[in-house]
Design a protein that fits this description.
Elements (H helix, E strand, L loop, with lengths): L1 H24 L1 H10 L6 H7 L1 H17 L3 H15 L2 E2 L4 E2 L4 E3 L5 E2 L4 E2 L4 E3 L3 E3 L11 E2 L4 E2 L4 E3 L3 E2 L4 E2 L4 E2 L7 E4 L4 E5 L2 E2 L12 H18 L1
Parallel strand pairs: 1-4, 2-5, 3-6, 4-7, 5-8, 6-9, 7-10, 8-11, 9-12, 10-13, 12-14
Antiparallel strand pairs: 14-15, 15-16
The structure holds coenzyme A.
Amino acid sequence: MVYVINTIIILAAIAIVKLLLISVFFYSDVRAAQKRDPAAKSFLEIILLYQGLHALIYYRIAHGFYKIHLFFLARLISQLARFATGIEIHPGAVIGKRFFVDHGMGVVIGETAVIGDDVLLYQGATLGGTGIVKGKRHPTIGNNVVVGAGAKVLGNITVGDSSYIGANAVVIKDVPPNSTVVGVPGRITKQDGKKMDVSLDHVHILDPIMQSIEEIQSKIDKLEKK
Ligand SMILES: CC(C)(COP(=O)(O)OP(=O)(O)OC[C@H]1O[C@@H](n2cnc3c(N)ncnc32)[C@H](O)[C@@H]1OP(=O)(O)O)[C@@H](O)C(=O)NCCC(=O)NCCS
């Protein structure tokens, strides 16, 4: 009986120490989650139940091992994290402060991805490569960027600060700062707070369906004017 009570006390003490360590070392990340998720009710709820935070904690530990070239151990931790949270962050990725993954499941972040501060990723977001090239092959994401649910940002491209990647967009070209990108392939719909005239966007290739719709629209406009 004494043995059982002692075990419970030790486990409770370990849990409390863990909570305290997370509160101290991940305070800004927990605050970021609280700020970004309107559904978050309390600090404790985030620490105990948010997979995005758990994945980040695993990542920070794994990244530490990666930096001292303990690659197998680093990868082992990241795979355990993937199993526990459904979020796969390669330990080689570089992630800034106050990073938050909301809902989490299905997020993939590649080895050479670089992520700035205050970045938010929703479920199913991928920061991936376009093929099997070596070297820097994953995106660089600026500060204060949001990557919507299911969006794919692929290749060694740059997403500028304060940009918003819409849900399910596929982005394969650089995105200037303060832009909103939607669709497949991604096209800029807003920049510096102003709506973009898609037909004037020569940097991003339009998709054929969009082009057909625009042609039909312009014909309708001409007919209406007659
Ligand atoms: C892109 C997004 C940020 C909207 O930005 P916005 O600047 O407010 O854009 P608007 O709503 O004014 O839409 C601009 C145009 O893009 C279209 N659009 C918006 N989101 C889109 C998307 N994800 N995919 C394709 N088109 C989209 C709109 O229909 C609109 O088209 P129109 O100009 O022809 O009418 C938002 O729609 C989005 O996708 N957010 C992701 C959020 C998310 O993943 N949440 C998950 C929570 S669980």
